[in-house]
Each structure stands twice: as structure tokens, then as C-alpha cells.
Amino acid sequence: MRRRMAPVSIKSVLISESVDPCCKKILEENGIRVTEKPNMKKDDLIAEIKDYDGLVVRSATKVTADVINAASNLKIVGRAGTGVDNVDVDAATKKGIIVMNTPSGNTISAAELTCALLMSLSRHVPQAVMSMKAGNWDRKKFMGAELYGKTLGILGLGRIGKEVATRMQSFGMKTIGYDPITPPEVSASWGVEQMSLDQLWPQCDYITVHTPLMPSTAGLLNDESFAKCKKGVKVVNCARGGIIDEAALLRALESGQCGGAGLDVFVEEPPKNRSLVDHPNVISCPHLGASTKEAQARCGQDIALQIVDMVKGKSLVGAVNAQVLASTFSQESHQWIKLGEAIGAVLQSCATSKQSFSQVQITTQGDCLKTSTGYMTSAVMVGLLNCESIGCPNLVSVLTLAKERGIMVNQNHSQLDGAAHGVCKVEISASGCNYKASGSIQAGVPVLLELNGSVFRQPVSLTGNLLFFKASASLQLLPSVAGMLATTGVHIESLSAPAAQAGDLWYCVGMSSLLGDLGALKPLVKEAAQLAI
């Protein structure tokens, strides 16, 4: 049974875009080989990526499913920036590849550009500059408006939204917002009143968006929402192209419903359709949100340090698809992951090798596993699916692979009569039959406590070559099994018998090597399975 757990081994990294030199320096100082090949075409990237454990990108490189499927060794995609919409996260997750961003690297720069566009919209600064350069002196044409006393609607109250709010409050703006994740009491602590979108639209003099681009945010500002806004509302988008419906924005600008737009991002970059860029009431930039020396240095440094910390097993920061790994960087968690994988492998060998399973229930018990149910669930599923013909699952990919196979995975945690020690219980359903096992850690070693109702007098040490068999209890059983094993040259190294004395029971034998054929056991036992852990 192969194990996949932190720390992750990264020996070589490809940097496919212009990233601050400190990124390469930090990686190389920590023993990671770095190759820089900016501006590669898709086919070149597909041909190149197979040789690397890691890939560092900014926003231009499109890490598509084709690229990911060509990456036979890839373990991590590091985005030196915030948004990961240029990375096929689902394809990466399915293949067990960590996608990591630098969540705070460009926060200040993006917030400052947003504020600059808000101020430029209010005073027509770029248009006035161009008029002056054309030799004009036209004071009346560029009549502006104060920001003081105006209402700013902020869609998305994460790091950047918060920084924009605090800065624009210093201009005397009232800040209101919408965010389905940030608690209202949190945003209220930094001066933003949350409300529904229907409440927000008619109050805003200015609107700025700071959300990721996803199905729920695509076209967030559209014909319907513009119609609910004040006539002449001004909008800013320094987040992602597509959050504002570009066709709807153009219609609102033409009708005067929208009084101006500041755009740093577009659906297509660079935009082939110039209608918005050329509109007199639009201020546009070529995606400059993170284009400051400070942001580039910070993002390059952050992504390098995050990769190094992951490799060294210190921590996992910025993983957008592998949050389950964040709690797996201690030696204690490694032991529990081994236990989960081993329990899953035992059940897979004893039950699911004969019939497919449809439902899995994983229960953790005890104080020490109170916050560990997530990675324990993934670990158990790795053990259950590791021998299936679905690739090689790991803690990142396994729940996605299980979902694709239609396996329902349930997890929960319960206290164990106030005890501090932990127990992991697993029950699977296969073709109407239930199979279950439970285990724990004793003296730093994963052990099996119970299998399908048979509680072992001496817990099974889940290491080495193990033979599990189900048979009716009798005085002749164990000598007969030992004799059969001896005839094949296999020696018994340990024996775990059930506490019960009657009925069909499960036994476990530790062996010097696996049997070449389990058929010889058939006259002696009802079921048998073996595995190496």
C-alpha cells in the first residue's frame, strides 16, 4: 500500500512567466532546481511540464486539463497572485495536484488601483490629461463630483474589499457591501454594512467588485442589476473579467444608466472588441492590479516560501483545493493518516475486492481527533480505493474520485466518554452487506481493534504482511492454518485472535511473506484476504 502524505517532495520547478527573481533564489537556496521559460505556447508547456514536480505561474499561463494530464510528475501548481481561474482546479484535484495561491501578495496593490480608478472616475483625470496633451484647455468639459458623502457598494468583502473600504472611508464615503461568506459582524467592525444585492443596488453612487470569477458571480452586474441602480452609477472592476457583463455595461453606458466605468480586467485579454475601451466614459488599464514592484516581489517571495514550507513539512498556506492537508504536518497526524489508510486497505481486501461498495461511514472519536475528521476521511478513502483501477488516489484527489464513482462518503466526530485517546471507526456498504473495522494508535503504531464484529484480544499491528481469515472457532483451527502455511514456506510472526470463543470469527496472522495462492486455505476457512502494509 503506497502512502501519499505531507511533506511533499518537490525537486524541480518550472517558472513559466516573469516572476520576481527572489522566487527562483529562495527555491534554489532550499535545494529545488528551477527552470525559467516565460511566454511558452500551450504545446510547448505540454511538452515541457512532464519533467517537473512544480509549476509557478502568474495569470497568463493557462494550466488546462491538457497541461495537467501531460504532467506525469506534477505535484503542485503555484499561482504567484490571488486568482486561480487560469488553472483547471478540478482537473488538478482529480490528479492529486495541489493548487496554491498567494492570498495576500497583491492585496494592497489591487486595492490601491481600485481607489485610483474610483478617484479618476469622479474627476475624469485620464480624459483631462489626454485633452491637455492634445493642446486643449477645457475646464468646463471635465466637471467632476466629490467622493465625500457618496455611497460605495463593495461586492466581495475579503482582503481586497476590506482594504478598499478602509481607504475610501478616509474620503468620507459611506461603505456598504455584499458577501455571502464574510460574517456581517466582521465587516461591520471595519465600517461596512452588509445587505442583500436588491437592497444594495439602488443606494450606490459607486460600485466595485472584488469576488472570484465563478458561476455564481459571472454577470453579477447585468441588465437587470443596472436597471435597479441609481442613474449614472459608476462601476470599477479590478477583480476578474466577466463579473460585470460587458455587453450590459456597454448598453448602460450608452443609455446613461451607468455614468462611467474603470476596468482593469476583461473577459478576453487583450480585448479584441474595443467598444468598451474606446468609450469616452471608460477608463481602462491592461490588467495592472498586481503590477507594482512591491506586489511582484511579495507574490514571488510568498509562493516560494509557501512551497519550501510545504516541502519541509512546516505548514501548508494558500492551498485552494487541499485544505485537508493543512492539518497533516505533525508526526502525530502522520500516524493517524497511516491508520486511516491501513483500515481502508484492510476493508478493501476483506470485502470490496469481491464486490463494489456504495457508501462509507467514517467516525472519529476522542479529543485528539476532534479536528482531524477531514484528513482521516481522506486517508481511509485512499486505503479503500488504492487498489481500484482509477489511478493512484492521494489525500487531495480521493474524495473527487469517490464522488465520480458514485460513492457516498459520510463523516462525523463523537466524544468517547471524555477519553483523550482516539479511535477511527469505518463502515462500508457493499451490495446490501455491511463491513466494519475500527482502529487506534498504540505506542505510536497503528493497530486494528475490531473487524466485522470480531474484537481482537491483542490488537493487530497494521504493519508487514497480514493474513485475515474468517472461520468457525475450534481448537483445531489455528494449528491447521499454521501447518498449511508451513508447507508453503511461510512462517507465522504474530497472531491476533478474537476475544469471543464461538461462532464465525475473524483472525489475523502476521506472516514472513504473502501467500502465492489463498486457495489452499479454502478447506479451513470461510473467507480470507491478505495484504502488505
TrEMBL record:
| One MF term in the entry's GO annotations | phosphoglycerate dehydrogenase activity
Naturally occurring in which organism (per UniProt): Myripristis murdjan (pinecone soldierfish)
Indicate whether Oxidoreductase appears among the record's keywords: yes
What residues does the D-3-phosphoglycerate dehydrogenase ASB domain cover?
Answer: 335-443
**SUPFAM superfamilies xrefs:** Formate/glycerate dehydrogenase catalytic domain-like (SSF52283), NAD(P)-binding Rossmann-fold domains (SSF51735), Serine metabolism enzymes domain (SSF143548)
- Protein name, entry field: D-3-phosphoglycerate dehydrogenase
Q: What is its EC number?
A: 1.1.1.95
Do you know which InterPro entries this protein is assigned to?
ASB_dom_sf, D-isomer_2_OHA_DH_cat_dom, D-isomer_DH_CS1, D-isomer_DH_NAD-bd, NAD(P)-bd_dom_sf, PGDH, PGDH_ASB_dom
**Subunit architecture:** Homotetramer.
The family database entries (CDD domains) matched by this protein are listed as: PGDH_4
Q: Which family does the record claim for this protein?
A: Belongs to the D-isomer specific 2-hydroxyacid dehydrogenase family.
Pathway, per record: Amino-acid biosynthesis; L-serine biosynthesis; L-serine from 3-phospho-D-glycerate: step 1/3
